[in-house]
Amino acid sequence: xxxxxxxxxxxxxxxxxxxxxxxxxxxxxxxxxxxxxxxxxxxxxxxxxxxxxxxxxxxxxxxxxxxxxxxxxxxxxxxxxxxxxxxxxxxxxxxxxxxxxxxxxxxxxxxxxxxxxxxxxxxxxxxxxxxxxxxxxxxxxxxxxxxxxxxxxxxxxxxxxxxxxxxxxxxxxxxxxxxxxxxxxxxxxxxxxxxxxxxxxxxxxxxxxxxxxxxxxxxxxxxxxxxxxxxxxxxxxxxxxxxxxxxxxxxxxxxxxxxxxxxxxxxxxxxxxxxxxxxxxxxxxxxxxxxxxxxxxxxxxxxxxxxxxx
Length: 310
Known about the structure:
51% helix, alpha/beta, 2 domains, Histone, subunit A, 310 residues
């Protein structure tokens, strides 16, 4: 894949709801256009979380080079900002070898953070910092905290009332973690990449049926044993970031004997369907997105080809 001259490097992004077929499409595009795939999945980054995350299989990873899979331990935390930093290094390397970076996954926050790094959603968060400022509010009041913000970021402070405690704390948190004022962040969605964003979708009922079938398949593949071993080997709790994913967090009520297997499956299916709905909403709102039905692979291939040849 030889990129045409462009002020911005070209990348292809594939997003969409869970179970719609993003991985298969990414592999096909990688083979057609000499590409390599960067996973955009907040659960697939964790070692050992294989079945519940629907991580690309070993066979699939042999068909095309994959990155950002199995890079963290189940006890680790990982932020959007860290994802962006790691993914950017890989993109730069792929481009340097004259290949096509293909970003593939359903974690819209990761993809948006990569494409538009100056957005506030990409900024780190800290419970410790938030608790510190909450105590200050309890002791001195909201007006006192707003004045503290005014000292470092008068533009943001001017837009807030002393009762807007959450927003005041967030502005202070951003400054403390990044060294940048909230008002310095871009409000425009401008990317340093020339990107083609493929939003892969299907009609709702077909997608929901596919999700239900995939959950049943996960249990047949051994999801229950996978989760129990992870919890046991790493002493994980529901508070671990790795266990926040659908297909994992539902198990804690199950292992505590609060629900049976049927209810467990029902909860995972229901949460997966709700998540798919949120993913659709998220990706539809992304700038320069184009929606495709998952059956229209030939159309997608042709559009990607035209994008690369521009």
